[in-house]
Write a structure and sequence with these properties.
Length: about 325
């Protein structure tokens, strides 16, 4: 069952009519193939036109869609021989940030990413993808292993932000995020980061300070959520659509601003409608970027990252 977003209601109504027509025609000798074909074409065109003109707020809703593929889905579809590694060797393990060794089309990589979960129980277990200090320290440990063994790093970013709870602050959340960002920038091996859903604040930057940053077509990336921005500026979350527009959160805006390097196309209707196709598109894009970075020396990779972030700051 597809979970429809508010702006998809016209598509939902049309697809419901198609389903009802199919059901009514079962066991009937009346030929309705022409009518079905007409309605299916109309539905496909409506879906395509809707997704061609999404507002930034609508893209935010798509990026948060409950059926959108997450880290584990991409691992299953794109990567092979994933060997998860847990714990930060200091406090414990954080299931909001997962990682380990994997293969991508035969290439050995270290893979790290946020996992939000796909049902109530798993979302609670993974803390809705909001990493704690031990999660970022685990990421640092994995990046150090990547540097030691000469393996490229791939990160899949999908978080509304790092966990803001008191216990996280007590264990040094800000310091862990800063050191994870530093570890990205200091890597002696290639790093490709992909924003696959939400890229929220420092919790995202801590895994996305790479020389190549990709973004799924309907993902969003910002320093604060549109609701958070609206609450600060207008004292009401109802202004979130206006905030999303002003903040330039979409892949298209960020590519134009030079914040990201590449937009990865999604299937018509978003990655949640065809996770397999979305995964194939992402896997191909990551593979191409890794191929391009393969010949760079460690000092050249660090220079690329330095130039990227100094250009943004300037």
């Amino acid at each position: 069952m597809i979970s429809y977003l508010e702006f998809e209601k016209p598509v939902a109504e049309l697809e419901q009519r198609i389903a009802e027509l199919r059901s009514a025609a079962e066991g009937d000798d009346v030929d309705i193939s022409n009518e079905l074909q007409r309605l299916e074409l109309k539905s496909a065109n409506l879906l395509a036109s809707t997704y061609q003109s999404l507002t930034p707020w609508q893209k935010t809703q798509v990026a948060r869609h409950p059926s959108r593929p997450h880290f584990r889905d991409y691992v299953e579809q794109i990567f092979e021989e994933f060997v998860p590694l847990g714990g930060d060797r200091t406090y414990g393990d954080d299931e909001a940030i997962l990682g380990g060794f994997a293969k991508l089309d035969g290439r050995k990589v270290v893979l790290i990413g946020h996992e939000k979960g796909n049902d109530t129980a798993s979302r609670i277990r993974h803390n809705f993808g909001m990493g704690k200090p031990e999660g970022y320290r685990k990421a640092i440990r994995l990046m150090e292993l990547a540097g030691r063994f000469g393996l490229p790093v791939v990160t899949l970013v999908d978080t509304s932000g790092a966990f803001p709870g008191v216990e996280a602050e007590e264990r040094g959340q800000a310091e862990a995020i800063a050191r994870s960002t530093e570890a990205c920038l200091a890597l002696p091996v290639p790093m490709v980061a992909a924003i696959v859903g939400e890229g929220g604040s420092g919790g995202a930057v801590a895994l996305a300070s790479a020389e190549r940053v990709l973004m799924m077509e309907h993902a969003v990336y910002s320093v604060i959520s549109p609701e958070g921005c609206a609450s600060i500026l207008w004292r009401t979350a109802e202004k979130a659509p206006d905030a999303a527009e002003a903040m330039k959160v979409t892949a298209q805006d960020l590519a134009e601003l030079g914040v990201i390097d590449r937009i990865v196309p999604e299937p018509v209707g978003g990655a949640h409608r065809d996770p397999r196709a979305a995964s194939a598109s992402l896997g191909n894009a990551i593979g191409e970027e890794l191929d391009q970075l393969a010949g760079y020396a460690p000092h050249e990779l660090k220079r690329l990252r330095e130039e990227r972030f100094l250009a943004l700051a300037g």
